Amino acid sequence: MKSLTASKFVAHVILLLFSAIMFYPVLWWIGASFKSNPELSLPTLFPHKFQWNNYSDGWVALPKYTFTYFFLNSIKLTITTTALTVISSSLVAFGFGRLNFPLKKMWFALLLLTIMLPSQVTLIPQYAMFHSFNWINTYLPFIVPSAMGGAFFIFLLIQFIRGIPGELDESAKIDGCTWFGIYWRIILPLMKPALITVMIFSFLWHWEDYFGPLIYLNTVDKFTVPLALRMFIDTQSAVSWGQVLAMSLLSVIPQMLLFFAAQRYFVEGIATTGLKG
Prior knowledge:
The protein is mainly α. The chain is 73% helix and 0% strand. It folds into two domains: 55 residues, no CATH class; 218 residues, MetI-like fold (Orthogonal Bundle), CATH 1.10.3720.
């Protein structure tokens, strides 16, 4: 019993040490956001004198626009694309998981192929297509594809749906439920953990997306937070890195809040989709 207790103590100490090592960069990031440029080169974790104005000055540092504008752009774009991704992916996954239709296996194989296809391969054709649609410098290149689902998210939800007993569908059919009724009343409520997992992944990917807005957005009034941080550095001859780190720290707060609020469902969704199939 004593040896078991000692082994648990050693395991907890090792885990705490690894946690401290992994948390150190975040702690340095927080401390550096309060530093002046000269203090950033010092080995201290926190500054001798906290520069609280890094946050207030950084928020209004860009000409004509405050970070409120870019945060609102990111929130509107991310919420819209995330909602459309969750809805469309669940519908397509329900079709693959429950319905029988011609060439189903072939379409599913093509779906898996799109997951394996690097995004760099489709970048130029997509840009040419969106340019011909006059969608450049609009949010449509992000919104329209999200309304058609994401291959990875569809596959994730298919694995979850396959683990739901088919007897529920048969019972619903006996009660006169249509296929959409089965999706809406039976499958969708049971998919809650998996849907929240998709929501978190989609929100994180769209919120921190830098390359996509860089390619399709040209004017400052449509910029998202990642582009604003890039512009923040470019527009100053002497970069105040404390302000840059302060704004980048604020930019991850929505992601952290979402993850911690839905952490229980996220872990449950990952576990169940990994075990069912």
